[in-house]
Design brief:
The protein is an alpha/beta fold and 368 residues long. It is built from twelve helices and six strands. It has a six-stranded mixed β-sheet with strand order 3-2-1-4-6-5, with helices on both faces. Helix 1 crosses helix 7.
Amino acid sequence: MAAAAAEAASRRLGAALRGISGAWYGRHMAAAERAIRTRLPLVDLVLEVRDARVPASSAFEPLRRRSPLEPDGRQVVVLNKADLADPSETEKWMTYMEKQRTCPCITVNSHSRESIKELLNAVRSRIREIKRGESDCTGTVLLVGIPNVGKSAIVNAMHQIGRIGAAEKGKLKHAIVSSHPGETRDISGYKVASHPNIYVLDTPGVLSPRFANDDSGPRLALTGAIKGSLLDEYDIAQFLLAVVNSREEYRRWENLNGAGDTNSNDNANTSRSHSKKRQYVSDHTQDFIVKAVRQVLLETISSFKGDLGKEDELRRLVDCQFVSLQEAFKVSTESSEDVGKSIALKLLNLYRTGRLGHYTLDHVPDVS
């Protein structure tokens, strides 16, 4: 099966990660973990943010290593980036986690106002339960997670919405939000609600020096939790294409409309917008380039005559796709940059922003 060959690509990337084991765990991350451990017993509620595409791999290891005297009763798991994951797989994960864990689990899209409101309401309800219904109390929430799962985006959205409803407005603060892991270096507090007063502490991402299993590392590298400078982006993109080639998502691209997205406007609106706005070939996120990339992947997979269940055959297809993607991304061979790296970076960016489909990389364990 193609999935077995994709696992071989994962093992190759995993071997590269073992070669740099712990390189991402610097002094600032060790200091952040110590600071988080110090605050864990002092807060009322812990929000553990995970990436919905990798619900198991993105677990926050310091919480697993807590003392038996620290119960899960004041913990909530937040599966962020649910808009980038496979909805059916997310539903399975929610069912599984609710059966396996004693703490609640909620899915979130940090860019959706309604989704953040639901999270805020869940936090308010939980704090009221903990404080036994007191209305004028103060609740503290610790937001924890590995790098690049969207903690700062969540706290910014909660702070903005909570500030609007707060009796005293105060100054709007902003946590640093970046697509690169490790941007948050300090613990900062944000007021997100009044009556009861609720403060959320945003913390730096902490990724343990060792992974729970051999599959976690490559999946975290693909979702962007590990700094790209530590690995060859070309190797990560090869793993991505192995995943794409082994799934059925590409079949949905056969019915693409003129704009390149299934949720685009009708052809009349598209033509009108194209007449007003120039298409820049250097911007690989524009719809017409995304459509070309999808078309290349669709055609190369559909026309491939080899056996995708064999590792060497899958690698041959991936190599062909890189060649074809050079034209789709408008990457010039005369560029001073490494052509393969340039294609890989653009491809990884499209995946991480959901433009190549919704892939959940962690499989729900079979408990039967």
